[in-house]
Design brief:
This protein has 295 residues and is mainly alpha-helical. It is built from 13 helices and no strands.
């Protein structure tokens, strides 16, 4: 390993060490995947370049009186993009088979754990979307599709209840590990995101279903509440909420709830200045179109 690689390794290790500092530590928001990166430095030029960009930009971002350039933020975003499993749900360029999605998730997450089980449900969405498009656009017969989506949605709701109970327990139980509240809050928020995904997917077949619309609005409202509770973990420890708040904007037809989600989304985006971002309205429209299969 060269001297440069040794310096990068040292810098990366300091940024992902396990410590009760959520606001700027990369490990908490982006997961234990990063722990596998140091041992792979020096084996791949692209990985080395990405780590250098990550370390450099993260250092600039965390510096007192920081002034981060647009280019730095772009490099930082690219370096973290590989961690975003959720991106592939709507990205048509990520063309994995249902078995490949299943293997990808089960290799990384414990499906017996509620949070891992939730992600296993999410991994079925690309195939559901593909089949649904054929039904809605090409009138292909698929008599089991709606019932399969409905069953998965009920499973997601059951898991979401368990995740909420875990979160409530972490608030009431003394002497919890320092990361318990952060971890349960994040998992519940991402669970709400997944619930909105399934809710809106199901609503594509029943647009005027009032019960579905009310449920989705409740999920959006819960995400807004979590965004307020997560201020102590900002900026990086709560960066995942930008994804959730985008879904909240798309998941409600209630003007007051949308306004609250929009305000929170703009507030969270303010943590990362210099990026070109669509308005919350465009974010909501795009996400809604993807979920309602009119993209």
């Amino acid at each position: 390993m060269s001297n440069e690689q040794s310096l990068v390794l040292s810098a990366l290790t300091s940024k992902i060490k396990i410590a009760p500092e959520f606001r700027y530590n990369l490990l908490w928001p982006y997961g234990a995947y990063l722990l596998d990166v140091p041992k792979r430095l020096g084996t791949n030029d692209a990985l080395d370049a990405a780590v250098r960009a990550l370390v450099s930009t993260h250092s600039d971002y965390c510096a007192p009186g920081r002034r981060v350039t647009t280019r730095s933020l772009e490099e930082y975003s690219k370096a973290l993009k590989v961690l975003r499993l959720f991106e592939g749900i709507f990205n048509e360029n990520i063309d994995l088979t249902p078995d490949e999605w299943k293997t990808l998730v089960e290799n990384e997450f414990d499906s017996s754990d509620p949070s891992g089980h939730m992600l296993c449900c999410l991994a079925k969405v690309p195939n559901f979307r593909r089949r649904a498009k054929l039904v809605l656009r090409s009138k292909v017969e698929d008599s089991d599709l709606v019932s399969e989506i409905r069953d998965q949605y009920q499973m997601v709701k059951d898991i979401l209840k368990t995740l909420h109970e875990r979160l409530e327990s972490s608030l009431k139980t003394p002497n919890q590990p320092f990361y318990a509240h952060f971890s349960h809050l994040r998992t519940f928020a991402l669970g709400l995101y997944i619930a909105i995904v399934f809710n809106r997917l199901l609503s594509a077949f029943d647009i005027d279903n009032a019960a579905l619309n009310q449920e989705s609005t409740r999920y959006a409202q819960d995400i807004v509440v979590i965004a307020k509770e997560s201020h102590i973990y900002r900026p990086l420890g709560a960066a995942y909420l930008e994804l959730c708040l985008g879904a909240a904007c798309a998941g409600t037809n209630d003007p007051e709830t949308f306004a609250s989600a929009k305000a929170a989304l703009l507030d969270y985006r303010g943590e990362f200045p210099g990026r070109l971002q669509p308005t919350p309205e465009l974010t909501a429209e795009y996400t809604s179109q993807c979920l309602r299969l009119i993209d």
